[in-house]
Every structure is written in structure tokens, then in C-alpha cells.
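Appendix B. Chain record.
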Amino acid sequence: MNEAHSVRQIWRSLGLPGIVDVHTHFMPKQVMDKVWRYFDDAGPLVGRQWPIAYRSDEEHRLETLRAFGVRAFTSLVYPHKPQMATWLNQWAMAFAEMTPDCLHTATLYPEPGVEVYVRQAVDAGARLFKAHIQVGCYDPADPLLDTAWGVIEDAAVPVVIHCGSGPVPGKHPGPEPVTALLKRHPRLCLVVAHMGMPEYTDFLDLADRYDGVRLDTTMAFTPFVEETMPFPKSEYRRLRDHADHILFGSDFPNIPYGFIDAMRVLTRLPGIDDVWLRKVFYDNAARLFGLPGS
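C-alpha cells predicted for this chain:
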């Protein structure tokens, strides 16, 4: 049985039309090549051997997701230095125009003029932003970003934000900078990547306090992560409590295991039922992005 068939068996058994994956990466080729080299070298923000499971050309990667039944996905791009975000946003806009099942994604960086290109991205129809605090090495509450966050907040565009201190802490790790950001912009819709690993409890607490905070399942609960940053057993009940605010994410193609593994671990979580799985694999994201309902 091939992987695509196994993936489809899961969502079909739940009566879903497919999957929405809010955490996938498509980038300009030269950027993706550099990202893969960084993983190959187990760079400082990776910290361990990390084979890329779906290393192939862009068209084959698109075919793979579609074969899995992924109905909508993202092109999470992120800058690591100034004067990079505008170019990435232009690329991501063009990619979304050519790829109707990709949610138009944009990014930002603390630099003069950030509010201008963020406004341009919103006006051009961006449906999602990506903020990578680790790689960008910036404080999300940096005053340079304040107006830009206000634009995103007013437009109600979700932001997938890598802000937990896993897999290796960066310069501004953990929930404190994000808490400061939400105090300034409490209506922001933040999708905390990787369930906020390893500060799972702190980010669940933020989801309790702010209606706009959500979490994506990217890499969480898999053996690869559990061996170093396990999800606390005491918090499993809170997964049920937050059934409407958890979204499926895979980190495709940059994962060191199969896509099917990212799905199976969710189906095996203690106390989880089909209603929860339907919400996480499709319904919550469909509601957030205005996709056809299940």
C-alpha cells in the first residue's frame, strides 16, 4: 500500500473532502536549496541530524501533496535579514497565482518600511503571513513591526508564527515576547507553530486568554520530537478543550519522516475522537480561510 493511499484512507474514514495543511514550505529554488543545506549540516537552529523526506523538484512536491488529498496548503516563506521580505512576498504572490490550491502567503521582518510592503501584500490578497522568530532572530514586539502588526490585525489575516524555543532556542525564544505582542495587538490571529514546542503549556495558556490564538500540530507528538521535547501527559485533556483552535500542519517537505506519520500520531492521541480529528484535519482551517465546508 503506497503512502498516498494510506493518507487518503484516514481522511475518507472521517468523511472529509481532504486535508488542509497550514504548515508547508514552497520557496524560490535558491532559498529552498540553502534551507536544505542547513538541515543537511545540522545547523545551529536544527541541532541534530535531520534528513529531508520529500527532497524533490517543486512540481513533484506539488503532485505529492495533491495525491495525499491536501486541498489547500501554504508557501511559508521567511526572511533571515533585512531587504529580503519584499522579494519573497513577490515570489509567493506569483506562486499562489500559478497554484490555486496554495493559500497566498506573505512574510515580514523588522525593518524600515515593513508596514508598506505588509499593506501591499494584504491589498494583493494575502491570506496568511509567516513569522519565524528563530530564523529571523528578532523580537516580535519590536517597535519597527508595530504598525505592520496593526495592518495585519485590522485585516484579520492569520499569522503562522514560529515562536517556541524548539528545536533549539533562538535569541527571542518562548512565550514572553508573544505575550507582549498580544498585549499590544490582542485581536491578532496567531497560529503558533509546532504547538509552541517545548513551551506547550504556556502557549495553551495564551490560547485560553486570547480568542485569536491557535496552534498547529506541526511535528508535535511524533517520535522524532517526543524523544527530546515530549508533550506533557497532563495536558492531553486540554487538546480536547481547544478542539476548535488546533490546525493540522506537517512541515512538508522538510520533515525527517513520512507525511502519514504526522497524521497517524494524531489519530492515536489519548481521548481524541473523530469529531476532533475532523476539525483539526480540515474544518478549523476551512472556517479560518473561508474554504468549502466539509
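Further analysis of this model is presented in Appendix C.
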